[in-house]
Predict the 3D structure of the following.
Amino acid sequence: MKHKLLFLFLFTPLLLTAQAFRSYSNEFLSIGVDAAGLGMSKSVVATTNDVNSIYWNPAGLVGIKDYQGSLMHASYFAGIANYNHASFAIPIDRESTVAFSLIRFGVDDILNTTELIDNEGNIDFNRIQLFSSVDYAFNFAYARNLIFKDVKFGVNAKIVRRIIGDFASSWGFGFDAGIQFERNSWHFGLMARDITTTFNSWAINEDEFNKIKDAIPGQNEDLPETTEITKPKLQLGVAKYWDISRFFNLLTEVNANVRFTETNDIFSSEAISIDPAMGFQLDYDQIVYLRAGIGNFQYITEFDDSQSLSMQPNFGVGFKYNGIKIDYALTNIGSIGNALYSNIFSITIDYRFFRP
């Protein structure tokens, strides 16, 4: 049930302070945007070329010919968490483009039971209040063609705002950069996230913290650290277009997601971890699209200390006509086991088809 997650969403963010330099920070920015890209297991860093490139690889924004806008909505954990994205891109000239976007990931209507029991030990349900735990990311991107043939470059500046009711809030900032290169039907891409590290500074409400201090013996004794730094990540992609017949085309792309830390990824060491992903897109005359992908290969330690390999399958469909593109993706957020599936919808509008 939604409200049974109270302690998870209330206490966990406040206790994320093992180290200022974290392997996992601002992880809501790793979810992705646009049902088309998610249907391909995020394997689009080499081929993205519309307004959603502001997230996948800002270099792809150069492919935009006129104003473009995009909206996306997704629900996670059976509707407990909602994830929304909006973006808009404007070509400056034939060589460069700017874009803006907003991401919101939030859990709303969480029960605050810190004052459920009064000083006399009486339970008063009227003392329960609701709060939200919300993450925002504001992005500004610039992209242009370089002097080298078939090479595009883009950079993305982001401001991160995170709010946990009246308990804590933070501001953060960072930069991403990407490059794309095309040669014949081959495409190559490199996306570097948090290239300068992304810094978050937290402000914690000490009055609210004192209400839960020592609620569990030996825990919540000291205020958490108020700064955290997100390590850089890399995403490399190689893609190829195949002309199957007069009307059918196939896009295949392979990505390698690189973290500079030890994780449960399929390839992992103390210095670096690599998570591969593969995506496929079959289209009929660039009108109807069928997509599939697989990624997020992770080793899971079972209760008997044995390890099993999990993976995340994805499926998607799309339709594009006269500048309007509607996409849908079905993703399994955990593994091919019993994890919850999520339905993702997005729409992209290209204004050039509406000009007289």
